[in-house]
Protein 1
Amino acid sequence: MQHTILTGDRPTGPLHLGHYVGSLRNRIELQGKHRQFIMIADAQALTDNMGDLAKVRRNVLEVALDYLAVGLDPAKSTIFIQSQISELAELAFYYLNLVTVARLERNPTVKEEVRSRGFERDLPAGFLTYPVSQAADITAFRSTLVPVGTDQQPMIEQTNEIVRRLNTTTGQDVLVECAALIPEFGRLPGIDGQGKMSKSAGNAIALSASPDEIKAAVREMFTDPKHLYIDDPGQVEGNVVFTYLDAFDPDRATVEELKAHYRRGGLGDMAVKRRLEGVLQDLLAPIRARRAQYAKDPGEVLNMLAKGCDTAREVAAQTLHDVRRALGLTYFA
Amino acid sequence: MQHTILTGDRPTGPLHLGHYVGSLRNRIELQGKHRQFIMIADAQALTDNMGDLAKVRRNVLEVALDYLAVGLDPAKSTIFIQSQISELAELAFYYLNLVTVARLERNPTVKEEVRSRGFERDLPAGFLTYPVSQAADITAFRSTLVPVGTDQQPMIEQTNEIVRRLNTTTGQDVLVECAALIPEFGRLPGIDGQGKMSKSAGNAIALSASPDEIKAAVREMFTDPKHLYIDDPGQVEGNVVFTYLDAFDPDRATVEELKAHYRRGGLGDMAVKRRLEGVLQDLLAPIRARRAQYAKDPGEVLNMLAKGCDTAREVAAQTLHDVRRALGLTYFA
């Protein structure tokens, strides 16, 4: 069965290996099989970046370059910019009537994000209501599958609640429910082993990292702090170098041998890091090369995005039309 | 100086004498002198009427008929339907990032309306955020004057806060501030003297009332409950019949004579009511006749609304364009 998938990223910084493992890699695999919409979520980025409009704007093109560099294919996936699809904002506006303030305040994902941003006192209304905006994005394309991390599952529940409320309120099957697609690998830890990889934590390796940056990042990488001598037994669990080998080394058998060797002692961190560095250089070299190629002609990238926006707008406009008609908001022939 | 004015009504029931005194009458006077946009606020009506979509839809045409019947002239005022101007929803969507949840919860008008609707526990997000939507409506037309009752003044403050925040955030003078235009007469009491006239309170005289309905309403009207005998002195203050004479009788001198006579005794309620009934029949007869005339051709009324929507959309689209550009959300030539 062919699914419709909505996925995307907020353009607030360059994409990194965490994005690659958690989503980009899966999208490449999904793009041949399903109808995939990939959204550069600039409007959502504004909900907590009104103070840095230039950053959001600049990163729209950067994220598009990252997409093309890893092999997302505009011929197979519809890549578009959220703010260019007015229909998404209008759907969100109507959905606001289908969800209570108390329900939004209870959303565990929002609660955690409000806490981590220190928004307790000055929470922008647009941030509290962004699950409604997400519901608009998801339903606009009649998405049936939405790749999310486990921490984002409440967003899917919220969306389906809105779907059911709209259908019940209007007595029509206007919108379709969606299911979460939880990625196999999940969150990649940062190179410091402290939480997930993120640009703001300073523990990321960007997809556009230079060979020297990759080298330096692997050298700094957190291993087993108790593994002081090569002959000592080392721990593989929580050892970022092995986590990355699991995530990126195509030679599974060799990785398992290395783990066994490391556990029983006699394998030094330097040797394992050399292997990982090779793996990452091999992975990122062609991505970097393709990125440089696309970056030479930003006009062509913008053309690609404009076409994606046209396709996305057409689909979203049909959904909006259906929602408006169901709400009784069409008066003219 | 020519102002731009935004005003309008929620299509949740027929308009009545309270609307006439508090706003419609003023609009007729303003329509020659200023640029006036009159909005049938169907989207705003949905914020607390999702359970009765048909009512909102039906009343859009009814309100338009009331407008034409009282003499609002589509050649002088732009009459349009809120939901047909997508740009308003999109502006509201961006403005949500410029106001905090705490600020919306503190809004005295919203607080009072939440209380009166019993929404404390199940407040729809769209209702909490409707001041943001109003700010979008007001600013979309670059309105400088907004006719509101004193109880709605916090909405004007909220709008101007959003205007200033957008201008500060973007470092550009994108939006213009507005001022409240408080009507001279204010709220008309209901015929029972219990609070303001409203359809839901069952104390209203609709603009489309029949001669018999007018007669019956005046007969029921609250006067001075202590004025038992014609010869007794009567009270004019709080006496609804006199309040209505003040509001509707064009012969000010005679009304003052009647008040003096009633106060010193010797003037019966029946006599004053007969005069008021004559005044109201004279006022409403031509309105009813014009309404019946327009109601014969709903297609023509819809045509008028469609033209108004086109004009409104053009103005709102320019504002949205300016806001999006200031936010950095334009990528394509």
Protein 2
Amino acid sequence: MIFKQMTIIGVGLIGGSLGLAAKKKKAVKTVVGYGRRRGALHKAVSLNAIDRYFLTLPKAVADADLVVLATPVGTFKKLCQALAPHLKEGTVVTDVGSVKGQLVGELEALMPEKVNFVGGHPIAGREKSGVLAATGTLFQGCQTILTPTAQSKQDVLRQVAALWEAVGAKVSEIDPFDHDRILGMVSHLPHFVAYALMETLSHPQVAKLDPVRYSAGGLRDFTRIAESSPEMWRDIFLYNKTSMLEAIDFYQETIEKIKKEISAENGPGLLELFERAKVIREKAPSK
Amino acid sequence: MIFKQMTIIGVGLIGGSLGLAAKKKKAVKTVVGYGRRRGALHKAVSLNAIDRYFLTLPKAVADADLVVLATPVGTFKKLCQALAPHLKEGTVVTDVGSVKGQLVGELEALMPEKVNFVGGHPIAGREKSGVLAATGTLFQGCQTILTPTAQSKQDVLRQVAALWEAVGAKVSEIDPFDHDRILGMVSHLPHFVAYALMETLSHPQVAKLDPVRYSAGGLRDFTRIAESSPEMWRDIFLYNKTSMLEAIDFYQETIEKIKKEISAENGPGLLELFERAKVIREKAPSK
């Protein structure tokens, strides 16, 4: 047992899956859920993702040894302000958000003395959201990034890492700002790209030809990418603004470069481009 | 039986699947294959995709009632120049290429008198290529576009449509240039977008953070898109240059628009964008 009581703030796909897996692996003794909708929390209990729940934050966190923030990134600051005064000494607070950077320092600063914050990000997800999509194997074989700062304590980091390892994840430690650059490239940029494509196809001048009727597998893969929780992605786009705009700039440069190859009808150049894509394909983890 | 002898030029994924399906549905009596590699053609016979094959073009097409061009688009003109003198009267020539536009008129002009050309494009495909990936159900439920011109004969169009319907496709007739605009948007642009993303991730300044190691499902869907035959895609990019550059311009405008929403931290605007993506998703055929 790594933590006695784990309180999950936001029992959706990620929070619910963590509860399920941590209970199954006996990494925690009790899982408490906090949320705003009683129906969803009730469902979470019946799915065995949590043992019990509270609709009031102070009660939910009062006895927690670990608090996990699993709501959209944009809610973290307010939540931490609200829950901090109710934590007992020695509590560890972590999160599962897709953005780190300066947010980590800001949350750290909101913690009372003798409470430690460790930023975390399990790189797992599905197109579906909500606790009904939760599964005890979601983190099996996935990468989880912890983002320590100068203030982080080694023993606390080790405890949080042990929880993720218990549910099957491979844990790395990365600087919070590097985390945002990396995720900006391999996750946030792809989602941006997919949403931009969908938006292009919605343009009235394009839509009048009803092109989507004649689409096939290629487009379907894109629509799948553009299918996750809108609130979550809004917050990611806003909170990782700097790295995203940097990644988009790179992407725009690449578009101009390939456009030139097409304009110049550079067949060998295009073949080389397709070959380089293979390298990335072979590097991408299969899970 | 719609055609007595069908000769397939290029027995790969699409050509092989057409042979398999047309034989199974008895839409043709005999299927002859033409290609350059004896090994692949031999394999195609053993898979029952063709009945026999020739490595010389004149022999392959001499007795054909229907000739189907199923090689990359860039080879069509040379092939038609080479095979035209060897066709018998009344032969129908069609293709399965992803680009139409002015190429249709050019191929039409290469045909001898009493030979009819009809442009065709089954919107089907898999990431895999080659006859080993061929399947008799590839065209089941897929859209096939025929691209008639002012010179096209109604009875010839009907015959070609009947062949595609026999193998399970839904047939539409679309102007060759509209075809290129439509496919430019829903197929060629998505592939461009995916290759541009892969290329961005290959950039040394990005690659030094080894970001792909931390990628998940989103990126995997992209790598799948960027997995089809390089030669085929080179030819599509080059032959559909005009419509592609037009589609890319639209896409670049959209990128600028979304970038502005991110820069301005326009949360409600981003949520609206994600909502509009849903409309496209619901319109895209499930097969």
